[in-house]
Amino acid sequence: MAQALFSHYASRIFLVSRVWVLCGFFGAAPIAALGDELDKKQGIDLYGQINRGILFFDDGADSDVYPFVDSSKSVSRLGLTYDAPLSNGWQFQARGEVGLVWGETNAINQVDGFSGSFGNASEPLRKLEISFSHPERGTFFLGQGAMASDGVTGQDLSLTNVVAGAAVKDVAGGFFFRRTDGTLTNFRIKDRFRTLGSSRRLRVRYDTPVNNNLSFSLAAGREVLEDRDGRYYADAAVRYDGGQGDWRYRGAAAIRWAGGYDNTQFRPKQLSFIASGSILHKPSRYNLTLAYGIEQNSGYYAYAKIGRRWYNFLPYGWTAASLDYYYYEDPRHNNQVGNSIGLAVVQQFKKQKFEIYATIRNYDYDDDTADYFDSYAVLTGIRWRF
User: Fold this and answer.
1) What is the rounded CA–CA span in Å between residue 103 and residue 279?
2) Residue 15 in 3-state DSSP?
């Protein structure tokens, strides 16, 4: 099994690496031209995070505790960047990043436990890309990395977004719903409670410079690391991050297109619209976060979160709490309806660079084909960044 997994991932990493190395060749020429001057300015940085916790899950008829899980909301990872200045104000960067994932909450379930988490979890290769940036001309990316709409649904000023956000599935997305007759379904929480955003693909991307707190992004690419998804993707996004007086604002919106072969079947092009925004009142530290998404020939969802932040409530850094609600509806597919309510608490330890978090969340799902138990999840953990 280990040999098969190695072969599976190695072939895909090799495919992405060919593009990355080719791009690096073109970037190497201007870098080398700087000669000895470059040696004084270039640098290599190592970064990453470890995010581990304990998950309790109850599907309405059975419950269990899953120790040492990796939260899909913000998976453990390790990355390396190489930066070098180019001529005429341009900056070059090469980035590689892998997920240190085992027991991911979007992969473990009642049937397989941890045993299937390698095959079902996020691909270990997260990023393998190069970029060229200029303060007046923007940034160009090439390689495996974030699409333009990646992160659009996660614009959040609550400080609880390490464990609570529009992607409510991330707490226990790998688990199957259970019918009221006691049988398990063949679909998971993550199959119904969606956010419709693009993640990482083998793509080209362009980001404009930030102007008046606004920036725009365009990207086009293809999924190459997932056997069941061979579609082509394109998206465009706009982001805002600013404030006025006692108020702080952050928001984003994106349009995504996908088309081509998905799981050996040709699917017509599909359009999606997603958006999210967050408002913070700085004197009171109350905050409100909203998100919305709709997909062509499918359903829509809406999300709302209200939160409060305290500084030095404990003498370590920010303390935050939030209450949120998610609603999903798809009348075209058996009148699917989903509801989720979550409560989250986070304590930051600023000097030590880690956070302790806890959340409790329910998943209420219904459609025309059967009746289902409500599911409940409790997740608590620690995220350490370096």
Assistant:
1) 34
2) helix
Residue scoring higher pLDDT (83 or 262): 83
Q: What's the CATH number where 35 sits?
A: 2.40.160.10
**Domain total for the chain?**
1
Three-state secondary structure call for residue 318:
strand
Cβ neighbour number for residue 273 with a 10 Å cutoff: 16
CA atoms of 109 and 123, how far apart (whole Å): 18
What confidence score (pLDDT) does residue 198 get? Answer: 78
What domain range is 141 assigned to?
2-385
CA distances 35 to 50, 100, 366, Å, are 38, 36, 64
Q: What are phi and psi of 167, to 5 degrees?
A: -80, 70
Residues 6+ apart with CB under 8 A from 2: none
Model confidence band, residue 112 (pLDDT cutoffs 50, 70, 90): confident
Q: The whole model's pTM is what?
A: 0.88
Instruction: For 37-55, write each residue's pLDDT tens digit.
Output: 444 458 999 999 999 999 9
Residues near 205 by beta carbon (within 8 Å), at least 6 away in sequence: 140, 141, 142, 145, 146, 147, 148, 217, 218, 219, 221
Please tell me the distance from the alpha carbon of residue 12 to that of residue 110, in angstroms, as a whole number: 29
Residue 213 contacts residue 241 (beta carbons within 8 Å): yes
- Structural tokens at position 222: 């293809």
pLDDT of the residue at 263: 61
